[in-house]
Structure formats: structure tokens, C-alpha cells
Amino acid sequence: MPRYRLIVEYDGTPYVGWQRQDNGHSVQAALERSVLSLTSETVSIRGAGRTDSGVHAFGQVVHVDLSRIWAPYKLRNALNAHLAMAREKVSVLDVQEVDESFDARFSALRRHYLYRIISRPAPLALEAKRAWWVSKDLDHEAMHAAAQTLVGHHDFTTFRSTHCQAASPMRTLDRLDVTRNGQLIEIRATAQSFLHNQIRSFAGTLKLAGEGKMTPQDVRAALDARDRKECGPVAPPEGLYFLKVDYPDDQPG
Predict the structure, then answer these.
(1) Active-site annotation holder among 11, 22, 52, 224
(2) Which of 1, 64, 67, 108 has the most neighbouring CB atoms within 10 Å?
(3) pLDDT, position 61
(4) 170-181 and 152-155 strand pairing
(5) Is residue 253 part of a domain?
């Protein structure tokens, strides 16, 4: 069966998350229903990573096996037509036919996420459900300095959900940068994989650093404590975006 790699964008607001669930509509189910509507095939679509309810994606990667060969652009356009008819907040940006050895989840080298904070006194209107509104002014340089204490290979017990199902809290964080453009503060994180709620836990803790309530040394001490109670408040889901995924075949040379 031919295998297709899809790059998918979605607004996570109306969904219970990426993964198919019994308690509501998911992004995975939306895509599977669009395939069923188009091809009459019941498929199971695998994604590069799970996102929680309210979390968005610019570049989620998935793969799907179909019974017939499609021209990639025709499959993209047809799926988008069926998604639009179903009024889904999901768009297929790109389709490629790939070898059957490709796996959206297990072939991934790195995953990239973005967390957006808008720091201003007035509440959000156009950006509501698209960013975390923080009414206080935040020092993004202090946030960035604190973030650097988390980069590297560590036990991230402090920064993972108590419901996390990962076998180990050990992860290697390749990047955690904080930048500012006017009222917009962006936190960018890169790793091969992340723990459940890890980035939102980072964002909540770094906000405290931006308010002057935690120093870089405090953040490092929280990491070393390996204690969930030392984590700052978990940031809300609407500020988080799954940016993109790197794969071996994407690398130059």
C-alpha cells in the first residue's frame, strides 16, 4: 500500500487534542473521517506528536497508508475539500509519497514548538485563544537567562505532568530561547521528544522569571529538585504551537 506523509495545520480550539478519544472530537479523527469520506477507507493516521486540547499546529506531520496511488497535490486538494465540507479547523499543507519505512513518530529526529505570550495591560480580542495574555510586563531577557539553565540532558520530573506516561523523565533539550517583538514574547523549544506538559510547564516557570519572582538559579534549583511542586503554574494550552518536525531525509547532503 502506498504511504503518504502529510504536513497539517490546525486550530486546536474546538478539539479535545490530537489523539482520537471517546470524550470528544479530535484532530486525528477529523483527518480519518476526511479520508473515509474521500476514499471509503477506514484508516488509522499516525502523528509525529500528540497535542492537548486547545493546542495549535503549524506543521504537525502524519502518515497514512491508502489502497491506491494518488498524485500528491490531488490528495492534498481532495482532503482539504472534505475537511472544509465538514467545517473542520484543519488544513493539509503538503502531501508526499514516502517509503513504507517512514514513520511520522518514530522516524522523527527533532520536534520544534513555539509558545506565544502577549504581555500588555489590555485583554486580547483578535489573539484570544491564540496566545497567553499576561497583563504584567515581562522581562524577556531574564526569561531567556533562566531558560538556558534547562538546556541539555536532564531529569525533567519537575516539568512533566503527573499523568505523563513516558517511561523515563530523562530528555535532552536542544534549545529553549526567549525573544521579544513589541508585546509578543516567543518561547521556542527543540528536542527529539518532550514529556507531557513539559513546554507549558517551562512557560509557566519562565513567566515567574520574567516577573522577577524566580532567578536563573531558582529555575535550576527547581530542575535539580526533581519535584513537580517546584514547577511554576502550567501555562494555558492556547499559547502553544507544534511548529515542525525534522526527519533524516530533510537534512542536507
Answers:
(1) 52
(2) 64
(3) 98
(4) antiparallel
(5) no
Residue 113 phi/psi, 5-degree rounding, is -125, 155
Does residue 115 sit in the same domain as residue 237?
yes
One-letter identity of residue 40: S
Domain presence at residue 50: yes
For the question of whether the overall pTM of this predicted structure is more than 0.85, the answer is yes
pLDDT digits (tens, 9 = 90+) for 76-121: 999 999 999 999 999 999 999 999 999 999 999 999 999 999 999 9
Q: What is the CATH number of the domain that holds 204?
A: 3.30.70.660
pLDDT in tens, 167-204: 999 999 999 999 999 999 999 999 999 999 999 999 99
91 shares its domain with 115: no
Report the Cα 118 to chain-centroid distance in Å.
Answer: 18
E strands, 33-169, where? 46-47, 56-65, 90-98, 110-119, 132-134, 152-155
Whether residue 204 sits in one domain with residue 149: yes
In terms of Cα–Cα distance, which of 24, 20, 27, 98 is closest to 242?
27
Give CA separation, 99 vs 32, 60, 115, 119, 250, in Å: 21, 19, 33, 45, 14
If DSSP codes are grouped into helix, strand and coil, which group holds residue 233? coil
Range of the domain at 38: 3-98
Q: Is residue 57 situated within a structural domain?
A: yes
> Apex CA 199: angle with CA 20 and CA 93, to 5°?
55
Chain-centroid distance, C-alpha 152: 20
Instruction: At 245, give phi and psi (nearest 5°).
Output: -130, 140
Number of domains in the chain: 2
β partners of residue 91: 9
Pairing state between β 46-47 and 90-98? unpaired
Residue 103 lies in a domain: no
Is there a single domain that holds both residue 92 and residue 158? no
